[in-house]
Request: fold
Amino acid sequence: MSEQNPSGKSARTNAGSINGAPINGESAKRRPAVSFVSGGDRHIRSRLMLSRVFAWLCRFSTYAALAVLVVLLAAIFYSSIGRLSPDFVTNTNSTSPLKAGILAGLWGSFWLILFTAMFSVPVGVGSAVYLEEIAKDSMLVRIIKVNLANLAGVPSIVYGILGYTVFRTSAAAIATLFDGKHVIGILGLFKVRLSKLPIYEDNILVGALTLTLVILPTVIAASQEALRSVPGSIRVASLALGATRWQTIWRQVIPAALPGISTGVILSTSRAIGEAAPLIMLGALTYTSMCPGGIESPLELLTKPAQLLQAPLDQFTAMPIEIYDWSKQPDARFTAVAASGIVVLLVVLLSINSVAMVVRHFASRRLKW
Amino acid sequence: MPTLSSGNVPPSVAGVDRDLDMSAHPAAIEARHLDFYYGEHQVLFDVSLTVPERSVTALIGPSGCGKSTFLRTMNRMNDLIEGSRCQGEILVEGQNIMDPAVDVVLLRKHVGMVFQKSTPFPKSIFDNVAYGPRVAGEKNRAVLADLVESCLRKAALWEEVKDRLTTSAMSLSGGQQQRLCIARTLATDPRIILMDEPASALDPASTDRIENLIGELCANYTIVIVTHNMQQASRVSHQTAFFYKGKLIESGPTMKIFTHPSEKKTEDYITGRFG
Reply:
């Protein structure tokens, strides 16, 4: 190294060069002094200004949304004063604003969500597994994937029309079969009289099937996203150990994707709770004091097993429908009732969403890649 | 510039005799005139190589030379890549595994694989090792426990983990995870183990342990290892095969390849003139 330094000085004292060789050819002269104190350069000043303005704009949009939410919540809580009390959740609907409660809607929403989840989870996760894990990348699969996003954007009232045409009509056809008069001959040998079953056209199952259509695209998209986030190395390692594709999906991929899938499912269901439009389209009751199957408290779920079977085939109302109904009442005292209904709906939604957060937290703690 | 002499070749790990002419040994794997394509792009050209039973064969060559692709054809892991296609034959235990009648699940039980990046499942250490036997249908808890212990012993990991078999495999160090993956592969009772750069992501001490482990395992298993590290190839293998641009340039006893290669290309690569 010293042979390459003919001046004989050490490289360190030779400013602007490395091992004696100038860095930029002839411009080895001293460069002008640099100042790091802000405000010196006009260009830098305007750039810094722009950067600050941008940060403030972002901050403003966040807090503006928050402010709207706070005002909204405060207004609702203020309006609900006068009706929001424990008996609001234990009373069913009434023509008197002082007695009207949300119990029927609460139970209706409970049954709807229970069945919606039961239908949408297997179908949604199944389709996502097919699209992400099994299907080859064909034209048809690509068309399906693109259109899932379009389906998620379809207004829910359109699904209501579809539900009316398909599910409500089918329910009506089945109801006539079980009207107590129907007799079916079997192979001409003997005849069976179908027992009378109280099936309503606008029952919980019809509502749940329609809501399933509404949330299915979202459930599939969330499950797809969760499946995609599972590292491919896990699949390859499992296959290399002699596992079949089914074993790999069932034992490795789905457990690893479960936190994402369950969060997606819970958040979609909480969207379904707030849906009123498709249910109104189906002809759900707006004014009723009856809970599905006549079950009015959680305890009765255990003590009235016969009613348990009746509930899914019974007529229903749901929380958003009752809220909508109250808000249309001419009596101004119903404003407080509607506001109380919104508070209950919000509390239910927030509890469901916090369950999603807890599930995500605990399930993903076990999984570290 | 290093020159070719046996003095420059590092000592081998215990259990590996690099001068042995393995051509008399029965063959575990025989590739015959293998061509391989990703879509239109051909990556392997007429590769023929015999891997003797219970030996270590190292595949070396610059990046993109096709050595990993060749390794993955031996248990048909390339099937997972859409648009890949293969011509020629690979005989494993005398059967052509390219035959459509071959069940890849059975093949992969017989020909295990260890990857570059250790890929423990997010499960307990026990469940990781027991995974292969379980997917094959073994349910007996006692049988599984014995198997897990013997495989962890063979992979030289038992003493380190015997008190925490139920803790997550993710809590192990990188070198331990790789040995766990080897134990997991052993648990499916394979005869052949393919290793795709098993030590390239590990520190020198862990690499050393893996290399010694390879020396021990080759008494009972046929091992094919892809490596970028020529020192490693020369330490652990009986036979070395040099790939360049999709062609098998030369193969032979490791000591011969590293001291008297027949081809100029091999000599250039080994002495570090390119690659």
Summary: Chain A has 13 helices and four strands. Chain A has a mean pLDDT of 84.
